[in-house]
Amino acid sequence: MATDAQPDPASLTLKDGTPVWVRPIRPDDAERLQAFHAQLSPESIYLRWLSAHPVLSLAEAQALATVDYASRMALVATVSPAPEAELIGVARYGRVPGRPDEAEVAVVVADNYQRRGLGTALLQRLMWHAHRQGYRYWTAEINVANARMMKFIQRGGLPILKKYAGGSWQVRVELGAPPDEAAPAA
Ligand SMILES: CC(C)(COP(=O)(O)OP(=O)(O)OC[C@H]1O[C@@H](n2cnc3c(N)ncnc32)[C@H](O)[C@@H]1OP(=O)(O)O)[C@@H](O)C(=O)NCCC(=O)NCCS
To answer: Looking at residue 100, which CATH number applies to its domain?
Structure first.
């Protein structure tokens, strides 16, 4: 049964017409997260983790799948609305320690689903949720070679501070005024 923390999956249509579904992560997604990670290209893993990270252990997957939907939140995209459907994208944030209005964001989309608008849709929904939770800033550590992610951030038109450190950009985005009550359009 759908609840506030676990609403029914929302459907959206990618740029090429493919339907996908988005819902908050659940603790029972741990093995699906491992399977999702296992099919990512080494490049996508590196850009997401900023390290090789070839295997996602069950303990790591369980920790990533178990969130409180406020200080830690994750949305997953799936190929169907079925509860056990395969994952094709994950966007998450975690509150930055000591900074109650700031969340660190990370996102990854399955290689064969990239460039179809899914990363943008996941991040927009995640930002909407973060805003409603009272966050005013989000931060991300982005590899300098990751033009896609920088393009996404810059395209949002929000005020950005970026600082170069050890091969990555530390990016801080001001989220601006709170959104309307309505959820973002798919
Ligand atoms: C970054 C990422 C999440 C974007 O997801 P996506 O679903 O491919 O993104 P979208 O389709 O919404 O595209 C966002 C923008 O990036 C551009 N883009 C996407 N893939 C690209 C590619 N391979 N090369 C150049 N630009 C690209 C798109 O053109 C788009 O801009 P546009 O709509 O103006 O053309 C995805 O590429 C990914 O998972 N990368 C690996 C992990 C990662 O880099 N995570 C970010 C650090 S936490």
So the answer is: 3.40.630.30
Which atom of ligand 1 is found nearest the CA of 15?
Answer: 11
Quick check: CB of 142 below 6 Å from ligand 1?
yes
Number of domains in the chain: 1
Dihedral of alpha carbons 140, 125, 72, 158, sign: positive
pLDDT digits (tens, 9 = 90+) for 53-112: 999 999 999 999 999 999 999 999 999 999 999 999 999 999 999 999 999 999 999 999
Residue 31: inside a domain: yes
Q: How many angstroms does the Cα of residue 115 sit away from the middle of ligand 1? A: 6
Closest approach atom of ligand 1 to CA 121 = 12
* Domain that includes residue 70, residue range: 10-134
Query: Would you say 141 and 37 are in contact if contact means Cβ atoms under 8 Å apart?
Result: no
As a whole number of angstroms, the distance between CA 105 and CA 127 comes to 9
Please tell me whether residue 162 adopts helix, strand or coil conformation: strand
pLDDT tens across 51-66, in order? 999 999 999 999 999 9
Q: Which of 92, 143, 148, 152 to mutate to test the pocket of ligand 1 (most atoms within 8 A of CB)?
A: 148
- Is residue 100 in a domain? yes
Tokens found for residue 112: 């064969």
pTM of the predicted model as reported, rounded to 2 decimal places? 0.92
Residue nearest (by alpha carbon) to ligand 1 atom 29: 115
